[in-house]
Amino acid sequence: MKRLISAGALCLAAGIAASALPSVTAHANSAQSSWSGRDAFGAYVKEENCPVTVTGEKLTLRIPDFPQNYYGDKEEFLSYQANVTAEYAFFNPASYDVEMTVVFPFGRKPDYLCGFYNEEGDPVEVDDAARCPITADGEELEKKIRYTLDRWTSDPSKDIPRLSETRRTSGNFSSDTPVTIYYYRQITTEQTSRSSFIAASFKGLGDGAKTKVLLERASGYDQQEERIGLWGDFSSDPKPFALYVIGEPLSRMPEWNVYENAACKKRTDGYVEQVPQEKLPTENTTLGELFLSKYSAESGVSETDWFNAVFDAVLEDETGLALKSSPYELDVSERLMRWYEYKLSVPAGGSVVNSVTAPLYPAINIRYTPPIYSYTYLLSPASTWADFGNFELNVETPYFITESSLACEKTETGYTYSQKGLPAGELMFTMSTSEHPERDSASYGGALLGVILSAALIYVAVAGTIIAVTFLAIHFAKKKKR
Question: pTM of the full predicted structure?
Answer without folding.
Answer: 0.75
